[in-house]
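[step 3/7] inverse_fold.run input=structure_tokens len=168
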């Protein structure tokens, strides 16, 4: 999403508000970064750009709903990430190598790039169905949240089996 910055740059307005919906599946970046996550659509993105005597700030708010598999038991889990952030907008005199700012190019401001950066920062590294999820049995693959399996709980490492004779 590119925001036309001409009203602020010309001095007509001090604030531009935006409200748009995006479909994450259409954005190849999110599907490449999170291949195991299904994002619910559409995602509503709201915010504004304020000009305070040449100091411009982008403010964005969005709720991102998703479904991912539990990292322990592979059960589908619904999650929500609330994105709320501000980024400073720099002019042409600032070095383009500086990651602290976003830049206006051809009198347009790309809102999607900082939004993707914030998704990367705020998405959980793993999703759990519950904090006390027991996961899957490493031997038979049964979901241990549904009950115990018949696999032996304690096995001796075959390399250390000879030490068992010392106890006799």
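[step 3/7] decode complete -> sequence:
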């Amino acid at each position: 999403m590119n925001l036309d910055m001409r009203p602020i740059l010309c001095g007509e307005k001090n604030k531009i508000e935006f409200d748009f919906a995006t479909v994450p599946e259409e954005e190849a970046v999110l599907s490449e970064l999170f291949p195991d996550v299904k994002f619910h659509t559409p995602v509503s993105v709201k915010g504004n750009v304020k000009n305070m005597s040449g100091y411009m700030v982008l403010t964005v708010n969005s709720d991102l709903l998703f479904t991912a598999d539990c990292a322990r038991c592979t059960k589908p889990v619904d999650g929500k990430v609330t994105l709320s952030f501000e980024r400073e907008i720099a002019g042409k005199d600032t070095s383009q190598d500086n990651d602290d700012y976003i830049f206006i190019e051809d009198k347009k401001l790309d809102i999607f790039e900082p939004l993707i950066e914030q998704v990367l920062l705020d998405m959980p590294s793993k999703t759990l169905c519950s904090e006390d999820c027991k996961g899957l049995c490493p031997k038979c693959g049964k979901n241990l949240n549904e009950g115990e399996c018949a696999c032996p709980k304690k096995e001796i490492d075959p390399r250390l089996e000879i030490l068992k004779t010392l106890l006799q």
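[step 4/7] annotate
Residues 112-122 form the longest helix (11 residues).
The chain is about 10% helix and 35% strand.
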